[in-house]
């Protein structure tokens, strides 16, 4: 372990419908890896808040994270977070759950466009290239609106659709037309004192890179970005901390000397070295 404060600030437990392991199992894996801190961030898809039971599951996740923090208090710092999906598609739901729990950390994410399925569920097999580009333009637009909303701490996996469009369906995408939109997002994050997440899950998937990739991480730094969180996006105990060391290497290359861990919604800057 060459990084003393190695931390993973994006993992899912059985309180997320697409994960199966308990908070204790995730923490045990983190402790074995020698992590300094682990933040549990179970899913809350705001447009399906009560229909899918997120109102109950997130409260359960919060209490299990707090209980795990007590169990592991001498081995690992454990924080209670949430991955708040599509908050503008269910603003009352977002308001309700953020008021209900004293989270340490709030990740904001966009998994689907308004009125459409999650990007991983879309059928790209017969989709025209122009349609794919149109989806991406709308994705970045809705992410920008979410950043303007601003009731979160870090922006999760910017470039999420590429995990499926490029990684799984091998559709060649020229990212350059979206750079003006991405730049606006990065600058608005900085203006709002928000963090950018370096999500390392793409390293263990067909995409083969972090989300966002190094060029955008470097651009964020060049614009004056200060706060960056790291997350494996693990949905099982075996993936906890996966790729996080590589994420720190990318941060160093981009010119960062610190990464960020949020405690009680406040950014704590941790030295990379």
UniProtKB/TrEMBL annotation:
The keyword Ribosomal protein does not apply. One of its GO terms (molecular function) is histidinol-phosphatase activity. InterPro entries: Histidinol_P_phosphatase_HisJ, PHP_dom, Pol/histidinol_Pase-like. Its EC number is 3.1.3.15. GO terms for biological process: L-histidine biosynthetic process. Residues 8-201 form the PHP domain. Transmembrane segments: none annotated. Coiled coil: none annotated. Belongs to the PHP hydrolase family. HisK subfamily. This is Histidinol-phosphatase. It comes from Hydrogeniiclostridium mannosilyticum. The lineage of its organism: Bacteria, Bacillati, Bacillota, Clostridia, Eubacteriales.
């Amino acid at each position: 372990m060459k990084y003393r404060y190695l931390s993973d600030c994006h993992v899912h437990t059985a309180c997320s419908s697409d994960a199966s392991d308990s908070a204790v199992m995730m923490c045990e894996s983190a402790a074995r890896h020698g992590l300094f801190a682990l933040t549990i961030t179970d899913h809350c898809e705001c447009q399906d808040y009560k229909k899918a039971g997120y109102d109950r599951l997130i409260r359960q996740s919060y209490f299990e994270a707090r209980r795990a923090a007590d169990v592991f208090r001498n081995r690992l710092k454990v924080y209670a977070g949430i991955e708040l999906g599509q908050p503008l598609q269910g603003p009352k739901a977002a308001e309700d759950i953020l008021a209900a729990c004293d989270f340490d950390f709030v990740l904001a994410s966009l998994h689907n466009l308004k009125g459409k399925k999650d990007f991983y569920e879309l059928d790209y097999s017969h989709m025209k290239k122009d349609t794919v580009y149109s989806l991406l333009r709308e994705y970045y637009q809705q992410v920008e609106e979410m950043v303007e909303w601003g009731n979160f701490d870090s922006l999760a996996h910017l470039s999420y659709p590429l995990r499926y469009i490029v990684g799984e369906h091998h559709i060649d995408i020229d990212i350059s037309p979206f750079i003006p939109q991405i730049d606006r997002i990065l600058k608005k994050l900085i203006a709002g004192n928000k963090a950018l997440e370096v999500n390392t899950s793409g390293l263990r998937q067909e995409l083969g890179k972090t989300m966002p990739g190094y060029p955008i991480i470097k651009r964020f730094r060049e614009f004056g970005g200060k706060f960056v969180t790291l997350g494996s996006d693990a949905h099982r105990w075996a993936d906890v901390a996966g790729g996080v060391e590589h994420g720190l290497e990318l941060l160093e290359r981009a010119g960062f000397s610190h990464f960020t861990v949020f405690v009680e919604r406040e950014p704590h800057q941790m030295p990379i070295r």
